[in-house]
Structure formats: structure tokens, C-alpha cells
């Protein structure tokens, strides 16, 4: 053995791996054509895709009618899409029952709201002006939408609808529900029995009923408990319902993150003399929330679409406005599919943006974990 | 131990049971620790040695007896516990650094938030501690970018930032690769030379021989034997100590 050991160490310089491993051909060979069965499946899938895409293209583009021509649409029924329904009913679907002449108001208000929300999503804008910006934005939003002052005609809240309503309900409910969910999650893990019981009861009760029930109760039963003559605006009732509902689910998500944190973190914080709230704020919540970003964004994205249930209280947000627009008009009612595809695209754009934002947040919070 | 000075830590007939299964984990512990004394606590796993030192800064509660640390009785009184925790620093086996903060932020967190030291002053003091453990060049890295030995040294520096009177070490080198153990032990020896009161739970017998004034051997929740390192390692008197030593000194 000793003859192979020498005191002179000859280092071997690293060299690149042999064989073609990069490039598109290599990728195809490795992933799609790696064996006979795989290759067969690839060819079958490609054939299926080709067939369905060509048919879809046929329906959606080749034989479709692109103007609001009712007769042409009727002739093309079953063969081609009638995108004219969007031209005809699009504004009604997107804006709901908001008066036609005042449509500029929801557009400006919603754009402003989305801008402030977008800014809040970027840590670069997290300074002391942000709460002020929110207050100003909310004041402007509700003044513009409601009207009744500054020369704007009043638009009662039950006429607000369409996409602006969906956005507003989601933004306000999520903004209120998120901090509430953190407190409830911490409360469920509290050592004080009263707090723990209240938080557990709240979560279990709300999770035991569908959102539609919560909205129904918030809307119809709440006024029964109010003194005679006091009415709470329907939007407030609905926002309270959605907020309480989402907070219960998000609280469980946050609690999962809190549980996943190693106990040593709170012990180390304790030995350093940090108080409970200091520990939560600086040590526990940053790590716990970073862990559950995918789950939380999942809840947000779900709630954005769950707002469609407010139809039960006669508020016509995006989905409700579609039913409103098409159910009453026998001419255009057969073309619901095209209209649904239209709002599907709108929902997709928003939800995909939220997804991407989620991935961006995950990438940012992972920086400290990269070795 | 001088007769005039009161012990800085006193365990007086302390007993602890685990709430979950009623196991009697600490049995009639009567121990005094003097200021500036360096004590190594060793014993088989499950002997209660970690639980013992975790009682000192109230990470564990005890049910019977009385534990006094630097004049304060450690009990249910929250203010008392806060006071004790400011005087007692702890280093854990798993380091327990805060991974989402840089090394420097880990160190200045407590001084700025608890002691309310101004930020710049806290940074200067933190850098001084990092120099002391020879890791100042990594101040702006995140803990997970450092090796185990480096992380443990940061953890020691973090505990030292509060200028504690007592340092507790709970198996500080047990989670480290062998080649990194020396750098951490060197820091601990340096600390000992500067007169710090230290309670170490460790299996590093070389460290015990170099630095300890006293070695305490625990088994099944009881103090079985305590002696100077020379006496304990060379002439263990109890059968259980002899058994334990034969197992760990073999390799």
C-alpha cells in the first residue's frame, strides 16, 4: 500500500462533465424522450394538444364573431364564439349597476386604491407616510364612489358593483383580516385560558359554516339586534362578514407557522431579556410569517374569488353583474360562455399577479437562508 | 470559596418533576456556586444536568425548594425573572441564532431593545465582542452562511453583549464537527481567564481539566459526586462515576 502514497501531492484540476448535458436537444432527450414509453406518451400528448388547440382556435378565432352583431352571432352558435357579447355587455359586467355617466368615478377610485395597495406591497415604501396615504386614499375612494358632495351625484352603496366592488371588498377585508388573524393565532397559543378559549371558539365556529351563511347572517340577522331605526350600510355588513371569515382561516395558517418555529428561538429571546411582544415582533412573526407566505397568499387569492358570494345580499360584483347583465336579456343570454371566459380572464390577471407577488416575497425572505 | 461572600447561585433542596409524565427529574439539589467559579457538570444523558442549569435563568420551573441567583429568588415573580435573565447569559447546543438577522443585528437586538442603548453605541460594543471571539469580519453575514463553530462563537458574543455576571453553557460543542470544537473551547477558556462565573454542561473533559474549579457528576437527577477535576478524573470515588468515566475516557 505504502508505495502508492507519495509525500508530493499532485492536485487534479477540475474539468467539465463529459457528454452533452445542456441545450434544448439534451433537455428533450432527458425529459420527453427518455425511453420508449415516455416517447410514446409524448407523441400522444402532442397529438391530443394539437387536436384540442386547433379546435379551440377554430371556435375562438377562426369562426368567431367579433362585433356586437346579434344576427351573425346567432348564425354562428355552436360553431364559433360570439365575442360581441363583450362589446355589448362588457361595461355592464365590469361596472355593475353604477350609473353609466359616472363610470369615471369607480375607474379613478379603483386605480388609486390599487396603486396604494401596490406600494404597500413593496418594503421600499414602508415608512411613516404609508398609513397617511391609506387614510387619504380611503377618504378619496369613498367620497368619489358615494358622492353626494362636491357636486357629485350620490350613488347609493347597493348600486356599486362589478370589478370595482370585487377589488374594494377584497382589499378592505384582507387588510383588516390579516392583523386580526395574527392576534387570533397568538391568542390560540396563549397561556391565558380565557383568551385561548375565545380565540378557539371563534375559529371553530366560523370554520364550521360556509361563507354564504356568514354573509347571510351578517346581512339579515344583524339588523334584528340593532335598535329600531338604526341601519348599518350593507357594505359594512358584508365587509365585516368577509373579514371575520377570512381571519379565522388565516389564523390557522399563521398558527401553523408559529408551531413550526423551533422552540430555541423563543428561549434564546427570553435569555436575552426580550419581552413577549418584543419577541413576537422581532423574532417569531418575521420567521413564522415568512414560512407561511404560500399558504397566506393562497387564502388571499381564494378570498378574491369568494367575494362573488355577495350576490346573496344583492350586491352585484363581477360575477353577479354578469348574471344581472345576461339573465335579463334574452337576446344575449345564449352567449354566457363567452362572457364567463371574459371575466375568467379578468380574475386570472389579478390572481396571477398575486401569485407572482407571493413568489417574489418568498425569494426575498429566503435571502438570509441561502448558504 | 471565601467565607464572607455569599454564593452567587444557591440551590436549596430544589426538586423538579416534569408536568407531562410526572418524572422526578431533579432530586434534592443542594449546590452553591461562588462568584468567579467555573464549574463543569457532566453525567449520562437524562441525568438532569441541562435541566439544572436551565432552572438558573428560569427556562425551567421547579416545584420544591428555593433557587437564589445573585440575590434574587427565582420563582413565579416575573420582575425577578427579568432581573435574573439580565445577569445570566446562556449559550445553547443548537446555537439558536436568529437566522433572519445578520450577525451584527443578532448582537445589538437586546442592548437596543432591552437596555435601551443608543444604536451606535450598541454597534461599537457588539463589534468589540465580535473581536473578542475573533469573528468581526463576518459581522454582516447571516448566521446560515457561517460554519457551526463560527455560529457558536457568535452566540457566545451575543450572550456577552449584555455583560452578564454568569454564563451558562448547555453542551456548547456537542453539535459541532470535531475540527471546530477547539475554536469554541478556546473562546470559553479565554472567558474563564477573565474571571467570568461559568456553569458548563459538557463532555469535553480536556476543557474541564484546563479550566474547571469543580466538576459535578449527576446521575438520575441527583448530584452523585463533586470534586476538583484532578481528583474526579483520576480518583473517582463513586461506582457510578467510575462507570461513566470508563465509558467516555475509553476513546
TrEMBL record, chain A:
Its main location: membrane. Residues 163-358 form the ABC transmembrane type-1 domain. SUPFAM superfamilies: MetI-like. Pfam families: BPD_transp_1 (PF00528). The chain crosses the membrane at residues 30-53, 104-122, 129-145, 165-186, 198-222, 234-254, 283-303, 339-359. The keyword Cell membrane applies. It is a multi-pass membrane protein. The keyword Transport applies. It is found in: Cell inner membrane; Cell membrane. InterPro entries: AA_ABC_transptr_permease_3TM (IPR010065), ArtM/GltK/GlnP/TcyL/YhdX-like (IPR043429), MetI-like (IPR000515), MetI-like_sf (IPR035906). Gene3D superfamilies: MetI-like. Keywords: Cell membrane, Membrane, Transmembrane, Transmembrane helix, Transport. Belongs to the binding-protein-dependent transport system permease family. HisMQ subfamily. This is Amino acid ABC transporter permease. It comes from Hydrogenophaga bisanensis.
Amino acid at each position: 500500500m505504502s508505495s502508492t502514497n507519495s509525500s508530493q501531492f499532485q492536485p487534479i484540476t477540475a474539468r467539465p462533465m463529459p457528454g452533452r448535458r445542456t441545450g434544448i436537444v439534451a433537455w428533450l432527450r432527458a425529459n420527453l424522450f427518455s425511453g420508449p414509453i415516455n416517447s410514446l406518451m409524448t407523441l400522444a400528448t402532442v397529438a391530443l394538444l394539437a387536436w384540442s388547440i386547433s379546435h379551440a382556435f377554430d371556435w375562438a378565432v377562426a369562426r368567431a364573431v367579433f362585433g356586437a352583431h346579434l344576427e351573425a352571432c346567432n348564425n354562428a352558435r355552436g360553431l364559433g364564439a360570439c365575442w360581441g357579447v363583450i362589446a355589448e355587455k362588457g361595461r355592464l359586467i365590469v361596472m355593475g349597476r353604477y350609473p353609466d355617466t359616472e363610470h369615471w368615478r369607480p375607474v379613478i377610485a379603483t386605480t388609486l386604491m390599487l396603486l396604494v395597495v401596490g406600494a404597500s406591497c413593496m418594503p421600499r415604501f414602508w415608512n411613516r407616510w404609508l398609513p397617511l396615504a391609506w387614510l387619504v386614499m380611503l377618504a378619496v375612494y369613498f367620497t368619489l364612489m358615494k358622492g353626494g358632495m362636491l357636486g357629485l351625484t350620490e350613488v347609493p352603496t347597493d348600486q356599486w358593483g362589478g370589478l370595482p366592488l370585487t377589488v374594494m371588498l377584497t382589499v378592505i377585508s384582507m387588510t383588516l383580516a390579516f392583523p386580526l388573524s395574527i392576534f387570533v393565532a397568538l391568542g390560540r397559543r396563549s397561556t391565558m385560558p380565557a383568551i385561548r378559549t375565545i380565540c378557539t371558539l371563534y375559529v371553530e365556529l366560523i370554520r364550521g359554516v360556509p361563507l354564504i351563511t356568514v354573509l347571510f347572517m351578517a346581512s339579515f340577522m344583524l339588523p334584528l339586534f340593532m335598535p329600531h331605526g338604526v341601519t348599518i350600510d350593507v357594505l359594512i355588513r358584508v365587509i365585516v362578514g368577509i373579514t371575520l371569515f377570512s381571519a379565522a382561516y388565516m389564523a390557522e395558517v399563521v398558527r401553523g407557522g408559529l408551531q413550526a418555529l423551533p422552540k430555541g428561538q423563543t428561549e434564546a429571546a427570553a435569555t436575552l431579556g426580550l419581552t413577549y411582544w418584543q419577541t413576537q415582533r422581532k423574532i417569531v412573526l418575521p420567521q413564522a410569517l415568512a414560512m407561511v407566505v404560500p399558504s397566506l397568499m393562497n387564502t388571499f387569492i381564494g378570498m378574491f374569488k369568494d367575494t362573488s358570494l355577495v350576490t346573496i345580499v344583492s350586491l352585484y360584483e363581477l360575477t353577479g353583474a354578469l348574471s344581472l347583465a345576461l339573465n335579463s336579456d334574452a337576446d344575449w343570454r345564449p352567449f354566457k360562455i363567452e362572457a364567463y371566459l371574459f371575466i375568467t380572464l379578468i380574475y386570472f390577471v389579478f390572481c396571477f399577479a398575486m401569485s407572482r407577488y407571493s413568489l417574489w416575497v418568498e425569494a426575498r425572505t429566503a435571502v438570509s437562508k441561502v448558504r | 470559596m471565601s467565607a464572607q461572600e455569599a454564593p452567587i447561585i444557591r440551590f436549596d433542596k430544589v426538586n423538579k418533576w416534569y408536568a407531562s409524565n410526572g418524572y422526578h427529574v431533579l432530586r434534592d439539589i443542594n449546590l452553591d456556586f461562588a462568584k468567579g467559579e467555573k464549574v463543569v457538570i457532566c453525567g449520562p444523558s437524562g441525568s438532569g444536568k441541562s435541566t439544572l442549569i436551565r432552572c438558573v435563568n428560569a427556562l425551567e420551573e421547579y416545584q420544591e425548594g428555593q433557587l437564589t441567583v445573585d440575590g434574587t429568588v427565582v420563582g413565579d415573580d416575573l420582575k425577578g425573572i427579568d432581573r435574573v435573565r439580565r445577569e445570566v447569559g446562556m449559550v445553547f447546543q443548537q446555537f439558536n441564532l436568529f437566522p433572519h438577522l445578520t450577525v451584527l443585528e443578532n448582537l445589538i437586538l437586546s442592548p437596543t431593545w432591552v437596555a435601551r442603548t443608543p444604536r451606535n453605541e450598541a454597534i461599537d460594543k457588539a463589534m468589540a465582542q465580535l473581536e473578542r471571539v475573533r469573528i468581526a469580519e463576518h459581522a454582516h453575514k447571516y448566521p446560515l452562511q457561517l460554519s457551526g463553530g463560527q455560529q457558536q462563537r457568535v452566540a457566545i458574543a451575543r450572550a456577552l453583549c449584555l455583560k452578564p455576571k454568569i454564563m451558562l453553557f448547555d453542551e456548547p460543542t456537542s453539535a459541532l464537527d470535531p475540527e471546530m470544537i477547539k475554536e469554541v473551547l478556546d473562546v470559553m477558556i479565554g472567558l474563564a481567564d477573565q474571571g467570568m462565573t461559568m456553569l458548563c454542561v459538557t463532555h469535553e473533559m480536556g476543557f474541564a481539566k484546563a479550566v474547571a474549579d469543580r466538576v459535578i457528576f449527576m446521575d438520575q437527577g441527583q448530584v452523585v459526586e463533586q470534586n476538583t477535576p484532578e481528583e474526579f478524573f483520576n480518583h473517582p470515588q463513586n461506582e457510578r462515576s467510575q462507570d461513566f468515566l470508563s465509558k467516555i475516557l475509553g476513546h
